[in-house]
Amino acid sequence: MNEASINYWGEGQRVRESGQLTPETALAHQSLVLLIHGYNNDQDDALGAYRRFVECIKKNSSVNANLLQVFWPGSSWQGALYYMQAISQAKKVAPKLARDLCNAAKVMGYLKVDFVAHSLGCRLTLETMKALEEIRSSQGNLNGLVIGKVVFMAGAVPTKYISTGQQLRNALQAFHSALSLYSRKDIVLHYAFPAGQTAAGEGFFPIALGRANWTEGGSLYPPVLQKENRDAGHSDYWGKSDENLEKKEFAASEASKFLNLGALLPRIPDSRISDIRTITKRTLPHSREVKSRIM
Question: What is the pLDDT of residue 39?
Fold first, then answer.
């Protein structure tokens, strides 16, 4: 399986200034689907989740989309205190990811991006949309970057933050359309999430997007579509474990259908790829490679 990634995992839990690309041409496409893991994942866990996601889709369909694996330092769950730090990490990564996507769009002339995110990766996704809007406001455009669809899986985002007039509402509505997969049996979102958000000063025991059917989402334009991953736990959307595999298959199937991941894509000429490699190396500087941190 061909795998492409952009890695913001610096030494320890530090955030890299620019994403490390593997291969160098990982952003050299006119369409990308970004896969974004959550807070309780080291790089090995995240890679296992991404591979499982693709395996589950391929059981019933093909995958022709250009998938880009996003790695960011958000591992080591240690209760509410670490969750506060994890939110901060997501906010640090978001403007860097936004900038790198805009730079890639400038090189290509056009880049459309869709997202599949899990847990706190959903917050990172929305913070990235917020950062993109700030770029648009400051420079007047996004260099040909087009925002497509998003699939939120077990979204660790307070619903109040995406409600009318709240800080991430515009970020949510930046998407062409959205799908939220949720479960009422998600113990992490039911108990740990409200406590962590409260400790982080982000409300008093708020409700997570991925915990229940968010009724307000249906009244948006376009609406946030919602489907229940019945009886799924927080880790039952993707992940390298074989446990509750049918729930992972359900999540992958719904995401694939919603994003049309089996659609055939146009091929970029080899000569253009060569030009992109040269420009991308200058636009997106690489830092020293850091080995996966397995907890």
Answer: 86
